[in-house]
Amino acid sequence: MGLLLKAVTTLAIGVVGAMMVSKKKKAEPSFTIGESRYLQDEPTGVNRDSVEIYYYRPPTWSPEDPVFIAFPGYTRTGDRFRTRLEALSVKYNMAIASPKFSPEKYPGARWYQEGNISDAEGEEGHIQPRGKWTFSAIDRVISEVRRRTGCKGKVYLFGHSAGGQFMHRYSLFGDHPRVDAIICANSGWFTMPDENIAYPYGMKGLPVSKGDLARAFSRPVYMLMGGNDISRKKPFRDTPEADAQGMNRMERCNNYFKACEEKAKELKVPFKWKKSIVPGAAHEGVKMAEGAMKLFCEEPLDETLGM
CA spacing 20 to 30 A to 183: which of 58, 171, 272, 290? Predict the structure, then answer.
C-alpha cells in the first residue's frame, strides 16, 4: 500500500510539473503575423524602465527571411516608425523591429545619439568608462529580436537621423554586432576619427585603440544619404564645430566617410565601408529605409558612390 501511494504521489507531481511547463510555454509570446510589441529589460539609461520594441511580421515572412531593425530619429517614436514601414515590410518581405529609446530613459542627445560616452553633452563633459556607454543596449536589442523572431536569415541594423548618429557611433565604438549590415542614414553630424578634436565632434581622450578602429572599419557599414537632404532647418545642428564638417548632411557624410577612409590608410588596415545616395529623398525616414532595403534585395540604387 505504501509503494502504491508513493507511485501515485510521484505520478501526480509529474503531471503537475508537466502542466506547469506547458503553461510556461504557452505564456511565451509568439512572433505573430501583423503588429506586436514586446518589452525588453534594459539596465542602461537613467532608470530601470524596459525598452519597448515594436514589430511587424508580413504574412509571407518566414524565419529564413530578413529582419530590418529600424532606429527612429529625433522623435524616438518606435511605434510610429514601425507603422510607417509596414508597407515596405510587405513589399520587400522583411520583418520590422523598431525599438523605442524613450527620452524619459535616455534623455537628450547625450544618451541617445552620443551613446553616453561623455557624462555631459558637448565638449565640457568627461569621458566615461566603457561600461557606462549605451551601445551595449543595441547588442541586447539585436539578441532579443533574434530570439523573438526565431530569425535564421539576415539581420540589418538601420538608423535614420538621430538614429543614424546612434548607429554611426555604434559602428565605431560598439562590440562586434551579430548583424549583416549597419546602415547609418541622414546623420546630422559625426564623431570624426581625429584625436585632436574633443568628443563628441572628435575622438580626443577616447579609449579607442588601433585594433578597435581596425575592427570598426572591417564591419559591413553603409553611409546612406538622401539626394535632397541639404536643408539647414532645425533640428539641424549649426554649431561652428558641426559646420566644420560641412554645411549640410550630405557634405558632412561625404567628409566623414573620406576621413574614415584616410584614417584606415594611415593605420594600414582594410576599409570595407560603403556609401550610397537615395535619389530624390530629403530628410525622410521612410524613403531612406526603402533605399536601404533595396541595397539588399538586388535592386541597386540609381546612383551610388563607393560601392
Answer: 58
